[in-house]
Amino acid sequence: MTDPCQKTCSDLTLSYGQQKSAIRELFEYGKMKAKEIGADKVFDFSIGNPSVPPPQEVEEAFHSLLQEKDPIALHGYTSAAGDPVVRQQIAEQLNTEYGTHYDASQLYLTCGAAAALSSTFRALSLESEDNEFIVAAPYFPEYKCFVEGHGGKLSVVPSTLPALDLPLQAIENAITTSTRAVIINSPNNPSGKLYETAELQSLAALLEKKAKDIGHPIYIVSDEPYRELVYDDQKAPFIPLIYPNTLVCYSYSKALSMPGERIGYVLVPPEADYSKDLYDAIAGAARSLGYVCAPSLIQRVVGLCAHVKPDIRAYDENRHLLYEGLTHIGYEAIYPNGAFYLFVKAPGNDAKAFSDYAKQHCNLLLVPSESFGFPGFLRISYCVSKERIESAMPLFEHCFKTYQSRT
Amino acid sequence: MTDPCQKTCSDLTLSYGQQKSAIRELFEYGKMKAKEIGADKVFDFSIGNPSVPPPQEVEEAFHSLLQEKDPIALHGYTSAAGDPVVRQQIAEQLNTEYGTHYDASQLYLTCGAAAALSSTFRALSLESEDNEFIVAAPYFPEYKCFVEGHGGKLSVVPSTLPALDLPLQAIENAITTSTRAVIINSPNNPSGKLYETAELQSLAALLEKKAKDIGHPIYIVSDEPYRELVYDDQKAPFIPLIYPNTLVCYSYSKALSMPGERIGYVLVPPEADYSKDLYDAIAGAARSLGYVCAPSLIQRVVGLCAHVKPDIRAYDENRHLLYEGLTHIGYEAIYPNGAFYLFVKAPGNDAKAFSDYAKQHCNLLLVPSESFGFPGFLRISYCVSKERIESAMPLFEHCFKTYQSRT
After folding, report:
1. Do A7 and B296 touch (CB under 8 A)?
2. Of B285, B304, B323, which residue sits at a domain end?
3. Are residues A232 and A219 in the same domain?
4. How do A377-381 and A341-345 pair as beta strands?
5. pLDDT tens for residues B163-206?
6. Are B225 and B274 within one domain?
7. How far is CA B205 from CA B244, B271, B285, in A?
8. Same structural domain, B379 and B252
9. Considering only alpha carbons, which residue of chain A is nearest residue B149?
10. Where are the extended beta strands (E) located within B278-340?
11. In 3D, which of A324, A8, A71 has the Cα closest to residue B61?
12. Do A123 and B280 touch (CB under 8 A)?
């Protein structure tokens, strides 16, 4: 028993359990520091927890379900894919919104987008082959651990600056016969980037062409927790309408301000190649990963609230305040069209060094972008109160000036 | 694209998605038949959904949390392992009940026992080796798909009749250098069998001896959703007190009558070998499978209700009614000490044939035991109303007599 890990547990999962994400590390530091010096003196822009309470309809749905529904049925098992009534409510919301013709049988409810993504990657991972999933950086770091946890490989290509456009040429170069899917996350975490229809059409054309070359479909796995958080009267293009081989992984975490409740879905559009098999494989993946029926009360809540839109005014106000404030100081930032993150060029280009400096000198917590696969930037979450942004602005200015003069 | 499955999705997960379990198949048949001929004419003993509503304390906890707690915090992310306050509440319940000294850091909250088991099997599965998990049949069929889904092998040994005792010799014979753990499920689904302390002590002695032989620990993974459903003033022995290398996978589904809410935990006792690494590996497995923080509202509900005991009087009454009724007719049944299942010898020994006969002639739905790895028996769930058992008794008698005379 010389090597404990080797003898007792999986190296891979041990490493996932021991490595803290850069985001979580800063967040934990912020909580500790707040206890030490007071929460008002720590400026924590690290975490993507909605700062707007759930819409009134959500609270009403909880109350009416708990008061009116038979508790045995309310808290009992639903079918593994989720209550058919709830799935139909969600299908109808999508149909109303996008002019589609979905029904309950194409939706599989999951414990949030994480479970949706993990089950989808597992279902797409063939036992006898290498499995590659392409993603454009900056990307949500958990993709790597979902894909690798099922034996696959995440193939990362950098987005195109200055606006983080889809790197079509790099994606084309990265496609091999092992390519199973391209992961799209628009609006993007960490950058707030929203892909427009024309850009997605070009990607669709590319993937159709390459799928013919390699002899099997290349799916888009569309991770859409921020789909409803889009500004300036824009709307996120619904990717299955552009590219039929799109599997949608959705979460209500951000739109309904309930990230802790873990509720989302996978949509397998009937227009996708082999859609019936894919749906069954996703159901089978969920089953073998230990997901049977998403939490039942919350299922019903999102069924009743499927049509509810988030109130994004507070985020929009923060977005302007932060973007305009920081660019006025001299920071270079990517103007975000969605989500609640601002992606800012790190002064001096070393994001970790600047993040450490801001933390030490001003208790300003900004996530360095290395773990998003795209060095040199800072992710600033603006799902905080307006007052926090206003109070932090002199600190952003102080850091900018002193760090620059120091280097 | 000649072979769609080969080209688009994992064979293994597709098979898990396409094969319906025997339990679900009967359950779905029952629902269909009820629509056709009326629910009162279908006698469905197929499913293990609690028939007793959640305790009053559960409903009160929902209401007070929704009324009193800040909704942003209530529905927001907790730490990945679960709210530390909730974990401490659970640790204290265990300490009070069993005289242990656990704390929050040894508990990892999960989406039910399924997620707990899946994460634990994944954590125990070494990348570079074969991984075997031993279970005594009859066993809960999903173990197979959790273990095999992570590349492991479920090694099944039959329990010893007439009372389904732990088959110690068979377990010893099944142990190899690839053995990672023995799965224990007491009280057992599908048989209601409860292992007593002496039996578990013998298993502990065996595993300690064999662990020395093979040079690494053999854990017990104790799947305990029925731990609180024990009759005749008995109590389920708490296995970590008998064998320190025990990882407990618990669910509140049955005790608090909320199987749909998907809330449970893994306990890694500090006395277990390499417990810190194991805990981290389980956390890492959960992360890579896509489990981050169990549903937050329900976490708080079980925290407040950790000490609440189920009211098992209705199940106990059903147990006697069914056991005595059936044995009086002439059926041979295993007297159950826990859970809410009766395991009955199939007249004629062909369980599938008898189940089909009972279904066709009497609309009596009984699960044949083949999928539990132990042929020749029927699982009868008695989490139904007393009236259903009383009404079904003449049908049980009719089937017994006509089937016997037919063969």
Report:
1. no
2. B304
3. yes
4. antiparallel
5. 999 999 999 999 999 999 999 999 999 999 999 999 999 999 99
6. yes
7. 11, 16, 30
8. no
9. A288
10. 333-334
11. A71
12. no
A275 and A320: one domain? no
Residues 228-247 of B with CB under 8 A from A: none
- The domain of B345 spans 9-54+311-406
Q: Do B116 and A290 touch (CB under 8 A)?
A: yes
Asked whether A143 and A314 are in contact (CB, 8 A), the reply is no
Assess whether A202 and A181 both reside in one domain.
Answer: yes
DSSP A310-346: P--HHHHHHHHHHHHHHHHHT--EEPPSBTTEEEEEP
Residues A290 and A329 in one domain: no
Residues of B (267-286) whose Cβ lies below 8 Å from A: 273-274, 277-285
Q: Report CB contact under 8 Å: A284, B18.
A: yes
Question: Which of A24, A149, A296 is opposite residue B260, by nearest beta carbon?
Answer: A296
Residue A316 maps to a domain: yes
Domain limit, last residue, from B265, B286, B304: B304
Domain count, chain A: 2
A-contacting residues in B 297-356 (Cβ below 8 Å): 297-299
Interface of B with A in 45-104 (CB under 8 A): 47, 49-54, 58-59, 62-63, 66, 71-72, 74-78, 80
Q: Is residue A277 part of a domain?
A: yes
pLDDT tens profile B86-141: 999 999 999 999 999 999 999 999 999 999 999 999 999 998 889 999 999 999 99
- Residue B7: predicted pLDDT: 65
Say which CATH number the domain at A399 has: 3.90.1150.10
Q: Which of A3, A9, A106 to mutate to test the interface with B (most CBs of B within 10 A)?
A: A9
Let me know whether A41 and A79 are in one domain. no
Asked if A123 is an interface residue toward chain B (Cβ–Cβ < 8 A), one would say yes
Q: What mean pLDDT, rounded, does chain A reach?
A: 95
Three-class DSSP category at B153 = strand
Chain A residue numbers touching B3 (CB-CB < 8 A): none
Chain B contact set for A274 (CB, 8 A): 4-5, 7-9
Name the maximum alpha-carbon separation found in chain A.
Answer: 67
The Cα–Cα gap between B211 and A11 comes to 21
Whether a cis peptide bond, with omega within 30° of 0, leads into B295 is no
Check CB contact of B114 with chain A, cutoff 8 Å.
Answer: yes
Judge: B13–A123 Cβ closer than 8 Å, yes or no: yes
In Å, how far is A400's CA from the nearest CA of chain B? 32
pLDDT at A407: 56
Q: What is the pLDDT of residue A220?
A: 98
Helix (H) or strand (E) holding B340: none
Residue B104 lies in a domain: yes
**Which amino acid, one-letter code, is at A53?**
P
* CATH for A106: 3.40.640.10
Give the span between the Cα atoms of A218 and B1, in whole angstroms. Answer: 13
Q: What would the pLDDT profile of B324-339 be if each residue is shown by its tens digit?
A: 999 999 999 999 999 9
User: Does residue B20 surpass a pLDDT of 80?
Assistant: no
Supply A303's token pair.
Answer: 């069924």
Q: Which residues of chain B make contact with A216, given a CB cutoff of 8 A?
A: 1, 7-8
For residues B155 and B265, membership in a common domain is answered with: yes
pLDDT higher than threshold 60 for residue A247: yes
Q: Percent of chain B, pLDDT > 70? A: 98
pLDDT per residue as tens digits for the range B344-378: 999 999 999 999 999 999 999 999 999 999 999 99
Do B49 and B383 form a contact (C-beta atoms < 8 A)?
yes
The reply to whether B2 falls in a domain is: no
Q: Looking at CA atoms only, how far is residue B349 from chain A in angstroms? A: 31
| Tokens found for residue B59 | 């409903």
Nearest to B290 among A14, A114, A258 (CB): A114
